[in-house]
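Model it.
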Amino acid sequence: MNTILKAALTLSLVLILFSHAEADPKNAAESPTNSEPGVVVKVGKAIEHGVKAAANGVERGAKAAAHGIKHGIKAAAHGVEHGAKATENAASHVANKIDDQQPPAASPASGK
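Modeled.
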């Protein structure tokens, strides 16, 4: 597992545990009217939501980085291939020019 992901999960779990450990479940967990969740419950849910969002963000970031590296490698390989082909074409072109500029080979002179 990714080190950043482990650290994010550990920190989030510690925050969740501390938020529940400090709260008195009889007084703070329930609202006085019992019609809506108490502050501790809301905070706990918000922390859980934050943990999930952080984990997803780290995962997406890792995937994007991996995709970026793969894309860069492919682009570099394509560039090398393109450069090799261009060099080959240039060398062939120069060789043809040199061949075209040389006079035809003279026949051996016959002695009289």
